[in-house]
């Protein structure tokens, strides 16, 4: 069982930056692939970014490539999402996810409660 908790959301102007953090419980964090998803009002949840447990390989949705960076600190049981050059269309609830087998859009063994990101002037 893994429990996930996201922090770091908020209101930011277009072009600004935010860093989301997701802390995980348990002693096996390093064995889990970790990812970020988001869900905007009236839309389905979509994949944003993921990072492998084995080699640290990273994966991004085309819409965020070059602007967002996912990273992890296994010593701190935490995964981060650095978001730069934010756009109004990035507005959504952002969710952290953990998965033992899948990394990428198909992952989703465990989910956090989400944190709101609003990009608006």
Largest sheet: 7 strands, mixed
Count of extended strands? 11
Q: Approximately how much helix is present in the residues?
A: under 10%
Q: What is the distance, rounded to the nearest whole angstrom, between the alpha carbons of the first and last residues?
A: 40 Å
Strand content: over 45%
Rg on CA atoms, Å? 13 Å
Low-confidence stretches: none
**Which H/E pattern describes the elements?**
EEEEEEEEEEE
**Structural class label:** mainly beta
SS element count, helices: 0
Mean pLDDT over the residues: 96
Mass-distribution shape: globular
What's the helix and strand layout?
Layout: E1 4-7, E2 10-12, E3 18-24, E4 33-39, E5 46-51, E6 58-60, E7 68-73, E8 78-83, E9 92-99, E10 110-111, E11 115-119
Parallel strand pairs: 2-11
Antiparallel strand pairs: 1-3, 3-8, 4-5, 4-9, 5-6, 7-8, 9-10, 9-11
